[in-house]
Amino acid sequence: MAERTRPAPLAQLRMRKLQRRALCDPASRQAVCGIIHILRGKIARIHYPSSRHQHHPIMSILNLSAYKFVTIEDGAAWRPLVTARCNALGLRGTILLAPEGINLFIAGPVPEVREFIDYIRTDALFGGRFADLQFKESFSVKQPFRRMLVKLKREIITMKKPAIKPELGRAPSVDAPTLKAWFDRGHDDEGRPVVMLDTRNAFEVDVGTFDNALDYRITKFSEFPEVIEQNRADMEGKTVVSFCTGGIRCEKAAIHLKEIGIEHVYQLEGGILKYFEEVGGAHYTGECFVFDYRTALDPNLQPTATSQYFGCRAVVSVDDQKSPFYKPGETCPARHPDSKTNAIGQAA
Q: Any idea where the Rhodanese domain is (predicted)?
C-alpha cells in the first residue's frame, strides 16, 4: 500500500483552535465537535507502512502497553517516584498500580521510551519484579495521550473477585500458531472441540471477534462471573480458550473458569493483537477495537476507517458512516431513534 503523509501542521493547528473554541463557547460546541470528529476520522484513516517492528521517520512516537500480575506491597511509595521519572522523560499515558500487579499504557519519543523500559526492568526500587515485563510496541504520528497519570487501584482490571489471584499462578495458555492449528483441524491436540470465549465488552465484540466465539454481551468485566455461571453448559466437555484484546482480562477469566470447575481451559497468550501479529486474521472476522485514537486495527495491525462518535463514543463502522442518521456532532446510527442500528441495539 502506498505511503501517505501525516496531516499538515496547519490542519493540526486548526483542530487545536477548534478544541479551545468548543471549551470557551458552549453555543457553538455542537458544530465545532462535529468538525473535530471529521478531522480525527481523517487522521485515523491514514495508512502507514506495513512493517510493524521498525521505526519510521513519520511515526516518531513509540507506544507501549504491558501488564503483569505480581504482588506489590508498596505502590503508594512508588507512585510519586514513577510519576517524576515519567515526567522527566516527557512521557504521557497511564500506569495502574495495585496489590495484584501493574498495567500500563505510555507513549513518547523513542529514546525516552527505551530509557523507561530499562528503568522499570532494572531499577532497584522495583526489586526485580518487572525484569521480565514484556511490552507490546507500536508507532504513531502523534502522542495519543494528554497527560501522565500514575494511579493506585484495588485491581489492575476490575473483576470484583478477590479470591482470583493471578499473581499467585496463571492458568495454562495457548499461543497463536497452536490455536490456528486447532482451528484448522477442528479440534485440539486431544481431539476435543474448541470453543472461543470472548471476555470483552459487547461494543468491542461488535467490531470483530473469532468465528463462532461465545459472546455474552457484557457491558463491563465485573459482569463476567455471573454470565459464566448462567451459561456454563456451553463449555462443558470442550476446550475453552478465553481471549481479549491484549491478554489481561482473559488471564483472570481463565483462572475463574478453572476455579468453578470447568476442566479444559486456556487463555490466548497475548490476546487478539498477538494473534494478529503472529498468524494474521485466520478464523477471525472483522477488526479489533483498541482504546486509543485509532479505534480499530485490522489483522495487519493497521488502523482502519472505523471511528467513534464524538458525542456518545459509540463505535461507527464504515457502513454506519454512510447512514443518513450519521451526522458528526449531532447524531449517529447507534443513537438516532429512527435508525435500524439503534433498534437492533435496544433489542439486544
A: 190-284
